[in-house]
Amino acid sequence: MQLFYEPLATDTSFILNKEEAQHCLKVLRKKKGDQVTIIDGKGKYYLCVITDDNIKNCQLEVLNVETSTLPDRHIHIAISPTKNLDRTEWFVEKAIEIGVSEISFIVTQNSERRHIKLDRLLKKAVSAMKQSLKATLPVINDLVPISTFINEQKVDSTATHLIAYVDDANPLLIQNAITNSEKVLVLIGPEGDFTSEELELALTSGYQKVSLGKCRLRTETAGIVAITILNNV
Fold first, then answer.
1. pTM of the full predicted structure?
2. Of 49, 67, 85, which residue sits at a domain end?
3. Whose CA, among 9, 61, 96, 224, lies 20 to 30 Å from 216?
4. How far apart are CA 195 and CA 225, in angstroms?
């Protein structure tokens, strides 16, 4: 099934944005009278018929609307972007394919990259959403210092706050730290990990230190491992 993304879709009729219309009409050669499926990034699938196949004014009439099932758990990963931006883009794509609700980017003392191209990451996110046949676009938050992020994320009883940390004296595996929390937030550090001061800030703010296993993982791999585990416990 081929999906097209229109965040302004309605339950009756709407115009498909030019970029998606170009792909629909010119690349896939859809025409007036053909049926297409649109997603709005908010959890809805729209089965539509093309009523006007002009690229600048591609009008769709809605035949049916379905709402996707909400995930059992809100998974939020806060991760330090990698030095190689391609690896960060890879992480965003795979995280969405596996199942993540929110991604935040944090700057730490050991971070090798201190800026990101948010618009490009959002495009990668949309592509991954369509590729994996999902209708909900995860929230992608811009880069902020770790101290700012921790101070803005209030710990509450409905959520589990974790920090993945490479530590021989850290036997608690992430899967054993999860209860029935509806929300889980995991901090993933850069190459070189969090500093002891950053770890202490997290712990005193209500985060729990966890391990992702015995192997030393690259940053983007650690993020994927965390998401995979959280989707299966």
1. 0.93
2. 67
3. 96
4. 21
